[in-house]
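wait is this the right file?? whatever heres the structure
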């Protein structure tokens, strides 16, 4: 009997030691996975030309010393926005067939999982032929490939001086089409305007007869900012970070309190949300998660969500008489979902 108890005691001890060892083996990788080290999660845009602004998201960037592009091109002049984000301008000399990018820090280097692609803009045509007449305030369409890299147009102002207008005033339809609305005050005459890309290419528009439009000196529509991400706020992953409130109903939970008159304008008309993403899933709901605008999420292919072709998407939001209007003042407005970073809210007017 003593021998039986002795053997049982030995077996129990072995079993307990085995269970502890198994637990230790299971716990160790869990503890390691909780530690976030140096790594590149994603970067935008994934297709670039020299001079193209880029954002790299990941972790462990605080001691970054260089960003290396395909073909071994190293950039040391960049902005460390946070430990999780770097802003950099794509350099000249990137390999034609693209490749992976690296972030090099004092502790090591991180390599992207996906490759960077090098773009090349070409223009195949315009909506107007040489000799046509166009008035200030009217539109001209540009067709081609990789048009997301067109960043400005130059033409004479009302006094005949060169006027360079940046791409915020372009309406992009993917990578193959741009719609440009002329300023109303243009020089009255026949001349050739120029398009510019980030990498310094120039494209000449057809020689057109330009005539001033009605009174005014602005673009027919332009972006009027409501809120812009200063770079300190990262990607959405079903979080409540991007919560907006009217100033009269702020509670301290919001990322930004919107002036009451602007809030009223958002409710009465259309505003736009720009996000940085490859494949976003966007939900416009309330801070209480009680009511979703339209009842649906917005993903590539959804009506109202436009791919700008440069790593960003634009969602047009018209609240109208949607049920969210009954609760939005008290419950606030939340931009959430997955796989994107909100960049700005604005009107087009």
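ok assuming it is, sequence goes like this
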């Amino acid at each position: 009997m003593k021998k039986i108890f002795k053997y049982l005691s030995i077996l129990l001890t072995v079993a307990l030691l085995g269970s502890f060892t198994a637990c230790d083996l299971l716990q160790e990788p869990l503890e390691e996975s909780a530690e976030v080290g140096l790594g590149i999660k994603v970067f935008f845009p994934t297709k670039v030309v020299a001079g193209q602004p880029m954002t790299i998201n990941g972790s462990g960037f605080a001691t970054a010393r260089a960003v290396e592009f395909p073909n071994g091109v190293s950039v040391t002049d960049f902005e460390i926005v946070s430990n999780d984000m770097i802003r950099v301008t794509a350099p000249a000399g990137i390999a034609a067939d693209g490749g992976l990018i690296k972030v090099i820090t004092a502790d090591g280097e991180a390599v992207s999982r996906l490759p960077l692609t090098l773009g090349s803009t070409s223009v195949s045509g315009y909506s107007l032929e040489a000799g046509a007449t166009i008035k200030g305030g009217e539109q001209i369409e540009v067709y081609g490939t990789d048009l997301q890299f067109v960043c400005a147009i130059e033409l004479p102002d009302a006094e005949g001086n060169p006027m360079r207008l940046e791409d915020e005033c372009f309406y992009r339809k993917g990578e193959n089409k741009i719609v440009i609305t002329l300023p109303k005050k243009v020089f009255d005459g026949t001349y050739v305007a120029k398009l510019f890309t980030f990498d310094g290419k120039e494209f000449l528009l057809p020689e057109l007869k330009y005539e001033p439009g009605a009174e005014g000196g602005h673009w027919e529509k332009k972006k009027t900012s409501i809120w812009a991400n200063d770079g300190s706020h990262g990607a959405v992953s079903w979080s409540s970070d991007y919560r907006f409130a009217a100033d009269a109903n702020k509670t301290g939970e919001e990322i930004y309190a919107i002036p009451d008159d602007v809030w009223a304008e958002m409710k009465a008309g259309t505003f736009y949300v720009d996000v940085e993403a490859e494949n976003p899933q966007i939900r416009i709901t309330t801070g209480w998660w009680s009511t979703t605008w339209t009842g649906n999420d917005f993903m590539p292919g959804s009506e109202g969500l436009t791919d700008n072709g440069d790593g960003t998407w634009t969602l047009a939001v018209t609240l109208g008489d949607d049920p969210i209007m009954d609760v939005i003042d008290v419950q606030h407005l939340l931009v959430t979902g997955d796989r994107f970073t909100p960049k700005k809210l604005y009107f087009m007017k």
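The helical segments are 2-34, 260-268, 328-331. so i think its the right one actually
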